[in-house]
Amino acid sequence: MTRRAEVVRETRETKISVKVDLDGAGQTRIATGIGFLDHMLDSLGRHGSLDLDVQASGDLHIDFHHTVEDVGIVLGQAVRQALGDFRGIRRFGLAVIPMDETLTRCAIDLSNRPYLVWRTAFPTPKVGDMDTELFKEFHHAFAMNAGACVHLETFYGANSHHIAESGFKALGRALREAVEIDPRAGGQAPSTKGSL
User: Fold this and answer.
1) What's the topology of domain 4-179?
2) 151-175 residue pLDDT tens
3) Number of Cα atoms under 13 Å in the Cβ half of residue 88
4) Which of the four pLDDT bands, split at 50, 70 and 90, describes residue 184?
């Protein structure tokens, strides 16, 4: 079974191309024009064991919002497409990631009922050139388009870089667990309803 997808989205604001392999080895090729976002997506792919290729161009002369949100949208769509009918997967994933003084938890349910609970705050308005408020926009766009219920919470942390990175790593590790094929599932949808 091949669990790969490629999604391209082009608007007047951005052009985004994402390729994902859910059964990859964490090989990444990332170029969004936003250095810190590239770093975060690389972390997500590597710690999620996803082969991930993200190419983006956007109206960065205005700000980073459209590019960050649209990358989240297209990555979510690619993961959703690669999952197919969700049959045989573990469905749930949980990761708790320490990063120096920071501790972040991500729980994910690949339920096809998208939702985001975001309990993460940043002590600074920017990390490098990137507005920290955009991290919530990315995770929201990803969850809505992947059909994922995502709860992301930073218990404590003082460094905005560490807070953001622990969140992306936690999402990657939780996603890695949730998309795994469960040999005990017998190829069935992991739901009492019979489908997701």
Assistant:
1) Ribosomal Protein S5; domain 2 (3.30.230)
2) 999 999 999 999 999 999 999 999 9
3) 9
4) confident
Cβ–Cβ under 8 Å, residues 91 and 193 = no
Boundaries of every domain in the chain? 4-179
- Decide: pTM greater than 0.90: yes
What 6-14 contacts at long range (C-beta under 8 Å, 24+ apart), as own/partner pairs, is 6/78, 7/74, 7/77, 7/78, 7/81, 8/74, 9/70, 9/73, 9/74, 9/77, 11/66, 11/70, 13/58, 13/59, 13/66, 13/67, 13/70, 14/56, 14/57, 14/58, 14/59, 14/66, 14/67, 14/70
